């Protein structure tokens, strides 16, 4: 599969994603500078990595949505292409309106960096077929602004449409509404999540519950050819 | 003509303002009786515009395009003509 990992000024998990994908699937992911106006021609999956894009000034992810590459990332998503935003990447996706909602400062005003348990809400998607529905996996979080928020009526709609991808299980670390740790767009081809699957993709670094995600994506791309 | 704007950005009513709550707790420790606190942002912008109405329109557009996240934030804009 062809993966483009967008590098914003301040991204710091970009190379971790490249390594995780290489380790899990054997594929080489390509780093794409935020100033580019086009994704590489054959891109299957775009990853917006964690970090502090544009220093997180103003709001997390707010300025990244003005980056030149983002117009083509949106086009890619509109065509049904896969987009995965991890942590700061999730914030970029909400600020870009590619996903609903917003990420606010954690309930307890602390930066949290530790493994957490999350439940896999759906396994019929491009990103999660390698898991069991309802499976609880352990993946690390590392964020100060990860409290998912959406106005109540829209939250109901999100739930009804089955757009919740992951929920915190065994304790909500940041106060996110409905324990939400990750969501899909309506088409299911865009996923934003606060936990970092790339950090738990190799047992040598603590755990590999993130690994099935990369394998799910690769399988989906091979099966659908998109 | 040059115009300046004082833009105040704050969390909407009903959105939990954790920073406001922390500040309120500190004020309470100092002996202030049950203060309610909301913490927001002050943004100062200056631009060239033909008249005050078009300046206001531009400032408002800036808020919608980038400065404010309408899902969780509200804002006010105070515009002044500069020399």
Automatic annotation (TrEMBL), chain B:
Which pathway is this protein assigned to? Purine metabolism; IMP biosynthesis via de novo pathway; 5-amino-1-(5-phospho-D-ribosyl)imidazole from N(2)-formyl-N(1)-(5-phospho-D-ribosyl)glycinamide: step 1/2
Q: Where in the cell is it found?
A: Cytoplasm
Entry keyword Ribosomal protein? no
Please tell me whether the keyword Chaperone is annotated for this protein: no
Annotated InterPro entries: PurS, PurS-like_sf
UniProt function note: Part of the phosphoribosylformylglycinamidine synthase complex involved in the purines biosynthetic pathway. Catalyzes the ATP-dependent conversion of formylglycinamide ribonucleotide (FGAR) and glutamine to yield formylglycinamidine ribonucleotide (FGAM) and glutamate. The FGAM synthase complex is composed of three subunits. PurQ produces an ammonia molecule by converting glutamine to glutamate. PurL transfers the ammonia molecule to FGAR to form FGAM in an ATP-dependent manner.
Sorted alphabetically, which NCBIfam families does this protein's record hold? Answer: phosphoribosylformylglycinamidine synthase subunit PurS, PRK05974.1
Q: What is this protein called?
A: Phosphoribosylformylglycinamidine synthase subunit PurS
Q: Which organism is it from?
A: Dethiosulfovibrio peptidovorans DSM 11002
């Amino acid at each position: 599969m062809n993966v483009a990992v967008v590098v914003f000024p301040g991204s710091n998990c970009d190379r971790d994603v490249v390594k995780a994908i290489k380790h899990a699937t054997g594929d080489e992911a390509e780093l794409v500078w935020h100033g580019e106006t086009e994704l590489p021609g054959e891109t299957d999956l775009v990853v917006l990595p964690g970090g502090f894009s544009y220093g997180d000034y103003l709001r997390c992810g707010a300025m990244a949505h003005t980056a030149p590459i983002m117009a083509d990332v949106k086009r890619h998503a509109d065509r049904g292409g896969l987009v995965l935003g991890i942590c700061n990447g999730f914030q970029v996706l909400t600020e870009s309106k590619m996903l609903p909602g917003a990420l606010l400062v954690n309930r307890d005003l602390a930066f949290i960096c530790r493994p957490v348990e999350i439940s896999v809400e759906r396994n019929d998607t491009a990103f999660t077929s390698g898991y069991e529905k309802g499976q609880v996996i352990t993946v690390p979080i590392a964020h100060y602004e990860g409290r998912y928020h959406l106005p109540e009526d829209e939250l109901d709609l999100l739930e009804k449409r089955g757009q919740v991808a992951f929920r915190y299980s065994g304790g909500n670390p940041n106060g996110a509404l409905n324990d939400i740790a990750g969501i899909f767009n309506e088409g299911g081809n865009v996923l934003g999540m606060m936990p970092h699957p790339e950090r738990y993709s190799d047992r040598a670094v603590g755990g590999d519950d993130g690994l099935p995600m990369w394998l799910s994506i690769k399988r989906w791309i091979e099966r659908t050819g998109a | 003509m040059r115009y300046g704007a004082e833009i105040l950005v704050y969390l909407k009513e009903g959105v939990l303002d954790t920073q406001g709550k922390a500040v309120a707790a500190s004020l309470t420790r100092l002996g202030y009786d049950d203060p309610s606190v909301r913490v927001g942002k002050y943004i100062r912008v200056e631009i060239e515009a033909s008249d005050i109405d078009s300046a206001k329109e531009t400032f408002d557009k800036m808020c919608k395009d980038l400065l404010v996240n309408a899902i969780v934030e509200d804002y006010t804009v105070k515009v002044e003509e500069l020399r």
